[in-house]
Design goal:
four-stranded mixed beta sheet, alpha+beta, Arc Repressor Mutant, subunit A, 7% strand
Length: 486
């Protein structure tokens, strides 16, 4: 077989992921908070993209903002161009180090000049102390020598977020070469600090330390937390009465004292975890009997293309401009494409929410129990888009509805068939299970089999394992943990 070189022409169609297309896809899957950061970053990087500060006063330029889902027909221009800064307008050079470290006399009760070693204003910035800082502050007031303080800090450094000790005394002895009595003394010193129950090895020891701090006179509570903690977790009152030999009323009173005054995780209140608040991306409100969809564009900057750069492109030929004209043209096109991508994102979210509203109108009218089965393909076919686009739109985005705030993914659920009746969504069945648990007799809670039987009476045939799976997804404890004393 002979080898030879040959030229061949082939015509094919394929999707090319251009940088503009990647940017549009990325903007589509961002939530509102991430979109705000992306807008600010793009404004900082692209000089041809500006924030329209006159949008509230100029009615002609309002349609160019993010609140609309219709792109402008013509390019808009700025009314005024910012004048260049004159050399006389430049602020004098400031010694920021001196400004940051000198304490302002306005903060002093007297008008005298503060001494050179006065604290800086940055020394007064408050921060919520964590568990480690709180314990170290208490150790500073304990009468410990340097070696003992170092061992105490070793114990504090090995506490987890729940306040439990994650090391052993043997490791401490090996680390510092001290005796067992010295290590145990330091551990007892740390356990005497606030909060009560800190530096315990397990939940049982932590509860025991808290009872000792409260000076509880009843030994029954101490017996329960040290010897029968597993029965306390499952609320097995009958077995507790048999093993302790006490009356049922005494056992219930001791358990009420434990659950009311003690905490299994003493260090958790000091955990430094930021709370993430949900900001809805779209609002669905019922006004005069009709549902109205409004995109959340509060505090969102409205963008425009700078007319200054457009005028530079339209200027006459210049040797200096020829070198930078390609750069300006690239930035102007990038700004126009970015604004177009934002409008396309807003239109897509609006259309997806409108389609969801049409499919799930019973939910918006009557509540989660009337949620219907819905898949991404249904919405994609309704608005003429691809399923991947719908998936990106519904990810990490929330809708504020008359029934509460829900993620857009919530409205998509698998179908549970029923004989001779319309299928139900799995979220609708979860709502029914939650209502059954809330209305159950707390002394005799419903088991998973009993819940499956009640659902079967309503022509909802699901297995006991499915009920257990739905219950775990809703973080509902099993029957042994929901039982209370009569």
């Amino acid at each position: 077989m002979a080898l030879e070189l040959r030229q061949q022409l082939k015509l094919t169609q394929k999707l090319v992921m251009t940088p503009q297309l990647r940017q549009a896809i990325k903007l589509l899957q961002l939530n509102r908070l991430d979109l705000t950061q992306a807008l600010q970053a793009e404004v900082e990087q692209n000089p041809a993209l500006e924030i329209d500060t006159d949008a509230d006063n100029n009615q002609d330029e309002k349609d160019y903002g993010l609140s609309t889902t219709v792109e402008p027909g013509i390019a808009l221009h700025e009314i005024k161009i910012t004048e260049p800064v004159a050399p006389s307008d430049i602020m004098p050079e400031t010694n920021w180090e001196e400004y940051a470290n000198n304490f302002d006399s306005n903060f002093s009760f007297s008008r005298e000049t503060p001494p050179a070693d006065a604290p800086s204003q940055f020394d007064f910035i408050s921060e919520k102390p964590g568990l480690s800082a709180y314990l170290q502050w208490q150790l500073a007031h304990c009468e410990l020598d340097d070696d003992e303080k170092e061992r105490a800090l070793f114990i504090v450094g090995n506490l987890n977020r729940y306040g439990f000790l994650e090391t052993s005394l043997e490791e401490m002895i090996e680390q510092f070469g001290c005796s067992y009595d010295d290590a145990d003394y330091i551990l007892e010193t740390v356990q005497e600090l606030d909060p009560p129950g800190i530096a315990a090895r397990n939940v049982s020891e932590s509860l025991k330390l808290q009872l000792e701090r409260l000076d509880c006179k009843d030994p029954l509570a101490k017996i329960i937390v040290t010897e029968h903690l597993d029965l306390l977790e499952t609320k097995n009152y009958k077995m507790l009465v048999r093993l302790t030999g006490r009356k049922r009323a005494d056992v219930i009173a001791a358990i009420d004292f434990i659950t009311t005054n003690l905490t299994p995780y003493p260090g958790l209140p000091y955990a430094q975890e930021a709370t993430n608040y949900i900001v809805p991306d779209v609002y669905v409100q019922k006004i005069n009997g009709e549902f109205v969809i409004r995109l959340n564009d509060d505090d969102m900057p409205q963008l425009k293309v700078s007319s200054y750069y457009q005028e530079l492109l339209q200027a006459g030929p210049d040797a200096a401009m020829k070198e930078s004209k390609s750069y300006i043209l690239d930035k102007v096109k990038s700004a126009e494409w970015f604004i177009k991508s934002i409008h396309q994102r807003q239109r897509t979210i609006f259309r997806v929410m409108e389609s969801i509203l049409n499919f799930q109108r019973d939910f918006f009218e009557r509540g989660p129990a009337y949620l219907k089965p819905l898949i991404l393909r249904d919405v994609a076919e309704d608005i003429g888009m691809h399923e991947s686009t719908i998936s990106r739109v519904t990810s990490n985005k929330y809708a504020h509805t008359p029934q509460g705030i829900f993620e857009l993914k919530f409205f998509f659920s698998t179908a549970i068939p029923r004989d001779g009746e319309e299928s139900l969504a799995s979220e609708s069945i979860k709502t029914r299970i939650r209502q059954m648990v809330q209305a159950e007799n707390k002394s005799k809670p419903l088991s998973d089999s009993a819940i499956a039987g009640k659902l079967a009476d309503d022509n909802i045939q699901i297995a006991r394992r499915t009920v257990a799976k739905y219950r775990e997804q809703m973080q509902i404890p099993p029957v042994k943990h929901r039982r209370t004393a009569r």
